[in-house]
Amino acid sequence: MELRQLKSFLKIMEVQSFSGAAKEMGYSQSALSVQIHSLEQELGVKLFDRMGRQVTLTPPGQELARRAQPILQEVDELEGVMHDRPPAAALRLGMIESLCKARMPQMVDYVSRHYPQLHITITIDSPSVLLDAMNHNKVDLVYVLDKPLYDVKWVKVFQRRENIVFVSSIDSPLAARKDIPLEEVIRQPFFLTEKADNYRLSLDQHLAARQLVLDPLLEVSDTGFILDMVQRNLGLSFLPQYVVENSIYRERLQVLSVKDFRMYMYRQLFYHKDKWLTQAMKLFLAMAAGSESRGRGGIRREFAGKNALTLAPDRGV
Fold this sequence. Notes:
Layout: H1 3-15, H2 18-25, H3 29-43, E1 48-51, E2 54-57, H4 59-83, E3 89-95, H5 97-114, E4 118-124, H6 127-135, E5 141-146, E6 154-169, H7 182-185, E7 191-192, H8 198-209, E8 218-219, H9 223-231, E9 237-240, H10 241-245, E10 253-255, E11 264-272, H11 279-294, H12 298-302
Parallel strand pairs: 3-4, 3-5, 7-8
Antiparallel strand pairs: 1-2, 5-11, 6-9, 6-10, 6-11
Helix pairs in contact: 1-2, 1-3, 1-4, 2-3
């Protein structure tokens, strides 16, 4: 059994395709097939079921994947230590737009100064699209806001509740009032995210259950633009509270007190259970967990004295 065979095996498992794995690894499809056939003969088992273009693991293949992943992770880390240099690294994140704007600037600032060799690609989309991309190995980690989501294929790193709120300008007549009737609130001009967005959909469903309808003045996916319109006192919006608190306009905004109305959604961070955890993924997961447990400034404290990661920080920064 050779390391290259195990690497090929895991890559096929990730992309669920012999041709896709061959392309990513720089092999011909026939050469990759020979590697896997040789591995199957040596082990005396069939590792993949091939049904047309679909490739799935057999039970022996699942067991091999479970045991091979930590072995190759150890080899990857050992190679980094032996070469005394951080490996080139890439990280593919899938996020919703509001979380990207609210949570990523601090992390990107830290990474750019301490891990400049790390290349990050962020895909912005809805939770359902991002989770499907994770299932097909198009993103490494998915960070979304939604109702609690579960699947046996996913590892959920954490789940945190977030308030979804009505927001106005501090100059709005509603800003200083308490227990405003919902019916009065939704009669105001509104700037809302598009209907496919999770919290917008939840609002529409809540209103429909009360035989109410909100007809917005404008729908747009850019929460920064929405809050610019709100702070100008041109209308109201309905957004996660963290979006308001992290906005550059936060001093000009007011979360409204609405009678008998509470809505929550949950920030959730996932990776696929069959995904080989790269050093870049481990770094982001630790950073995210550190910021969750320590709040603002938690990233720096979380990583004090933790330069033993293979993805070592640039000590010249």
